User: Fold this.
Amino acid sequence: MGLYRNQDQAFEKELAGQSAVRLLPIEMEFGLTPDGYFLAIRLSGVGVPKVETKATIQFEHQEAKKPQRENIVRQLTKLGNTIYICEHVDVADNADQFFIPSSVLAELRRSAIESFALQPLLVEETKPQQVYDLKNKKASAFEYINPSQYKRFPYLYNVSNRVAQAFYEQQGANVKTAFECMDTNTAHDNPLIMQCRHCIRYSLGYCVVHGGKQPTWKEPLYLELGDKKRFRLEFDCKDCQMNIYAE
Assistant:
């Protein structure tokens, strides 16, 4: 058997870089307090959970020689290695007419972000939200998971350590350990082990929902491994996904 080694430096460089980073989009509001300034942060998007926090800092209101908006926005949106990206900064109360050092803005930003990160995302129902694709420079849709959504299959949360389990329990979800960590003697019969947006029926051109041909085979279909283990496929057209079950 021949052994081939890939020496494509451009390809290796691309593999070594970040391929996808998901960031939570947020909005900021910056304004005046009687003895300083405030910074409010909230999740951005239509129909998202109401998660908001506000931080304040004391600093004398000194009238600036020129508007400070550009520097205010630049300093407040320096979010570094956080999981957030700021889509909009609202400067209220004509706060950009006052001089405020970059160091003070940075301290206010750090305080607000730290406070925001501690807010629990208590989602009452599954609602659309956005994440930011760093590579493609655009926002894309995803959905929050409702803790009650998978009561029938709580192992689908893929909780495989105590820290993750404690987090979900804090959110009100009664979770069990991930399927991979289960005792095979107590595991579910024909358990649902994966939910995919990739659909074999669609890939083959047999998705009638999207204008494909009517399937000519008899279902269910199965994926079969080399060791003859089989996995039953279920096509959930309502949610546009393919479910995979262990046999």
In short: The mean pLDDT is 79. Residues 205 and 212 are 5 Å apart (CA to CA). The helical segments are 9-16, 69-76, 102-117, 162-170, 200-203. The chain has five helices and twelve strands.
